[in-house]
Design goal:
Number of domains: 2
CATH architecture of the largest domain: Alpha-Beta Barrel
Distance between the termini: 57 Å
Helix content: 25-40%
Strand order of the largest sheet: 7-6-5-4-3-1-2-8-9
CATH topology of the largest domain: TIM Barrel
Strand content: 15-25%
CATH class of the largest domain: Alpha Beta
Oligomer: single chain
């Protein structure tokens, strides 16, 4: 095959020393490689990578060609935003894509009237694309100097600085069937080096069913603002899914991927040294009812699976116990492990779960834990959920609602049910409020009512600190 002379690089956030695949960016690279004259690669950039070395590697890769660089799944990293801006100002075409590309390009609601709010990333990027990756094809297949405002899914600024936004095209299963997992690179010795992945992903469902319906929720004031002067809950916050979830507001729930596309995704997964398909995360927030079908599709392909990783909610686990047991019997016969890699418990306090709009209670979480603990002895080698087996379950702390009473009760629950033994991660995750999540509406209402301003940290709202003082006094790690 003749080498393509046009180059496209997708930069994304990555963790040092890891070797996992990146479904969104690598699927986008595959689409570009298959449908345009460009050769696309993905570069995973860690926090430790030297940006000067990265720029050197980009110069070596593009040589004298026009630099066209996409940025996706950046995790709110200001260093990568700054990099995009520097490259843009030196003549590169920088494109923001991936989750929340639209809101991040446009900026936080009302930033024009409230200068402390996140003003958006339109200075850093030539334009943004929100929605399916195939929307980049017409741009890449057009000539130089094309007016990007004509393309679906594009956000861009005109000569007066006004942002125009085009609606994205619908998701198309035809573009969701293939991923070339050999496109991922890392930065090494001031150059891009291919990285062989050890864990892939298969997309079976787009979005989360919990985000399918919008509802009005009631969220408590932050404890530090109400402990001396109690205030009522805020009413009128309209939310899809969990209140902290920016993906829920970005995609909501868009249903299942066509089974033919899922089957092809399994086919394109690399094989490990044992000849089996490498472990993969099944992207489906309610996977248990369709889990058996994954094994049937593998049989139709005459391939063997090594491990299937599941991310799911506690209530969905309880609803799917029967199909899970049925699939575990199949997995045991085929010597395949099913790893409950991340169960979104998030908290073991009902007040916090309510404010997070999890749709579950403390007891739901405890019932789910009891169920998997009972299943584990029956399938010791084929059901995984322990930290030592690679699981990292959701536990959010601190939050704005923590107080002495809540902390005591959570610690009591942790001790009583021995959650540190097998459930709780080594480190909790502080509550992150993305500027376009449901909680962002809540915190902006608080700012206006209390006449305070919370700090902005990249694309997030720093609920723990106003511009004048810290609201986060001493919130120690719970366990």
């Amino acid at each position: 095959m003749k080498e393509k002379t046009k180059k496209f690089v997708i930069i994304t956030g990555y963790f040092k020393g890891e070797s996992y695949g990146l479904l969104g960016p690598q699927m986008a690279a595959t689409i570009i490689n298959d449908h345009t004259d460009y050769e696309a690669i993905v570069v995973g950039v860690t926090n430790e990578d030297d940006k000067k070395d990265l720029k050197t590697a980009l110069n070596r890769h593009f040589k004298n060609r026009q630099k066209i660089i996409g940025f996706s799944s950046l995790g709110g990293r200001p260093d990568l935003f700054d990099l995009a801006g520097q490259l843009k100002h030196r003549g590169a075409i920088t494109i923001l894509a991936g989750p929340q590309a639209g809101p991040d390009y446009k900026g936080e609601t009302g930033w024009q009237d409230h200068p402390h709010r996140f003003k958006g990333l339109s200075d850093c990027f030539s334009f943004a694309v929100h929605g399916p990756a195939q929307q980049i094809i017409p741009f890449l297949n057009s000539g130089p100097g094309i007016d990007v405002s004509r393309f679906d899914g594009v956000l861009c600024r005109d000569e007066h600085g006004r942002i125009f936004e085009n609606l994205p095209v619908p998701w198309d299963d035809a573009y969701l069937s293939k991923v070339d997992w050999q496109t991922l690179n890392i930065l090494k010795d001031k150059a891009f080096k291919p990285l062989s992945i050890t864990c892939g992903q298969v997309l079976q469902q787009i979005g989360c069913q919990h985000a399918a319906k919008q509802k009005q929720i009631f969220i408590d004031y932050p404890w530090e603002l109400q402990k001396d002067n109690p205030r009522p809950c805020f009413a009128g916050i309209c939310q899809k899914g969990c209140s902290f979830c920016d993906v829920a507001t970005d995609k909501g729930y868009m249903g299942a991927v066509d089974e033919t596309a899922v089957k092809k995704q399994i086919f394109y997964l690399p094989k490990g040294p044992d000849g089996r398909k490498i472990p993969f995360e099944l992207i489906n927030e309610s996977p248990l009812f369709k889990l058996k079908r994954i094994f049937e599709l593998a049989d139709e392909l005459s391939v063997e699976l090594s491990q299937v990783n599941l991310t799911l909610r506690a209530d969905y686990l309880l609803k799917g116990l029967e199909p899970l047991e049925e699939t575990l019997k199949i997995a045991r016969k085929k010597d395949t492990r099913i790893l409950l890699s991340s169960i979104g418990f998030e908290s073991f306090d009902n007040t916090i779960l309510k404010n997070l709009n999890k749709g579950v209670t403390r007891q739901t979480n405890l019932d789910a834990i009891k169920a998997i603990r009972q299943l584990k002895p029956e399938y010791p080698a084929h059901l995984g959920y322990l930290k030592e087996e690679g699981a990292n379950h959701g536990f959010i702390h601190p939050t704005p609602w923590d107080n002495d009473e809540i902390s005591r009760e959570i610690n009591k629950t942790i001790s009583m049910y021995q959650l540190s033994f097998d459930i709780l991660p080594n480190h909790s995750t502080p509550l992150i409020i993305h500027h376009a999540s449901g909680l962002s509406d809540w915190i902006r209402k608080i700012e206006l009512k209390e006449n305070i301003e919370f700090k902005r940290v990249g694309t997030t709202i720093g609920w723990w600190q106003t511009r004048d003082r810290s609201l986060l006094q001493v919130l120690s790690y719970v366990f």
